[in-house]
Please model this.
Amino acid sequence: MQKNGHYDPLFFLSDELYFPPVEDANIDGLLAVGGDLSTERLLLAYKSGIFPWFNENSLILWWSPDPRMVLYPKNIKISKSMRKVMRSNLFRLTKDTCFETVIEQCAAIPRPGQDGTWITPQMKKAYVELHKKGIAHSYEVWSEDQLVGGLYGIDLGHVFCGESMFSLVSDASKFAFIKLGQELDSKNYVLIDCQVHTRHLASLGAEEISRSSFLRQLKRTNK
Model:
């Protein structure tokens, strides 16, 4: 990977439970390659400001981008149209009732500019295991008896690391995200980690902060 006019070698992980300093990530945020998706390594990653993101036919890639996209729960934006949706009986929310279905739907939804999905069978298995251990959670949105949207992520106690969301009808994923933000605000969570910038997340109040600022806030919650 090119940095400052020359190429720095990527750090290849071994079986040792270790990550290099996040400051060693390249300009795109790529930090390391390889390793595994064990519960222990995933928890170390998230607590260190690192997350996995890779395609089905590649090695595991570990990222820590700078800047970092986050949402402070108290800053969530609810448009006038979404306020009407929130007040209506159009949707209802459940939590952790069908985690595997949510992650499967997130994997199946086509994304603009994305060829295939990064939620590989390997990733699904790892996050289902995290869910069984009470670390990963899903939020499901229903219209009558139909699952129409949802999201899932990792709960570190005072930081929620959002992983992916899906919507089969208009506003369903926004409904899930707003409900998540409101719940976390009531519980005094510090932030929701949204990882990288998207216009959709920005429209809901998420913002970019420096990686160093993100890590300081994350470390305070890990004590």
